[in-house]
């Protein structure tokens, strides 16, 4: 059996050609040519004009002879070729560049994801964005952690709540590890979204207001952990261990669905009693 590896230069060339040929010039509002087009789709000159690059550069890319395009050029080509989000991500991958989020960071939960959070009951669940803002949660999560509905929207941030909310400061048995892990996750998110002013502002605010955050932030730990256990000392349920799982929706890759489950039989009994109240 022969294994074929991807030649990214040639695949980039072929992908650009096929997407150019699929476009209808009339749908883009381009003037009708005086002569009939010999091939379907846009001409290379039209793609170059839409992307703000030279025709020679487009020719070389489509022939697999051009240098690796920069992130700005990839973004311009994706817009010129009207690529769908998945196609755009594919083009960035072929060029060896990191995709840039063309939209503003999400600050509200998509209705389908908010409904999913509710449908996960009786498991405690919540939806976060990349800044760890809490976008949606179910009743069980309010019983386990905090009733986020009582907080002003600007304060509904998982890192902020863990650091500053009085109900959570004594909630975690190993609070030091939980805080350290959360800050390491936040630093990874900051590196992936360096142009998000709200995220930068949150970090600056926490550095100025909380000595523990400032000290741990300066240690520059990085972590992206999608599952693990947390031991809670709950005022109503006693000591219980919960296992968390973090899932990323394909349609909303900057959001995180966090689900908690009891880690053992005793914890399950305690969690069931707590959420049934």
From TrEMBL:
Gene Ontology MF: a single term: DNA binding
One Pfam family from the record: MLTR_LBD
Residue stretches making up the HTH cro/C1-type domain: 34-88
PANTHER family referenced in this protein's UniProt entry, alphabetically: BLL4672 PROTEIN-RELATED (PTHR35010)
Protein's UniProt name: Helix-turn-helix domain-containing protein
Species name: Streptomyces misionensis
């Amino acid at each position: 059996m022969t294994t074929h590896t991807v030649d990214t230069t040639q695949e980039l060339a072929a992908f650009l050609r096929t997407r150019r040929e699929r476009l209808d010039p009339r749908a883009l509002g381009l003037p009708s040519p005086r002569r009939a087009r010999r091939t379907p789709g846009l001409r290379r000159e039209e793609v170059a004009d839409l992307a703000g690059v030279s025709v020679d550069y487009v020719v070389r890319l489509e022939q697999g002879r051009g240098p690796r395009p920069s992130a700005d050029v990839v973004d311009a080509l994706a817009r010129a070729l009207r690529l769908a989000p998945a196609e755009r991500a594919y083009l960035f991958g072929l060029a060896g560049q990191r995709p840039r989020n063309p939209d503003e960071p999400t600050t509200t939960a998509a209705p389908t994801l908010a409904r999913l959070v509710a449908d996960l009951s009786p498991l405690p669940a919540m939806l976060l964005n990349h800044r760890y803002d809490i976008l949606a949660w179910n009743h069980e999560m309010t019983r386990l952690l905090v009733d986020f509905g009582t907080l002003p929207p600007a304060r509904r941030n998982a890192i902020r709540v863990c650091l500053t909310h009085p109900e959570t400061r004594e909630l975690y048995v190993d609070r030091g590890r939980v805080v350290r892990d959360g800050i390491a996750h936040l630093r990874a998110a900051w590196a992936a979204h360096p142009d998000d002013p709200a995220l930068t502002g949150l970090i600056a605010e926490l550095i100025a207001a909380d000595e523990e955050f400032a000290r741990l932030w300066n240690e520059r730990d990085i972590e992206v952990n999608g599952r693990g256990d947390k031991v809670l000392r709950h005022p109503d349920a006693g000591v219980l261990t919960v296992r968390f799982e973090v899932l990323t929706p394909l349609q909303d890759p900057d959001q995180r669905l966090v689900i908690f489950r009891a880690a053992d039989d005793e914890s399950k009994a305690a969690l069931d009693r707590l959420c049934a109240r």
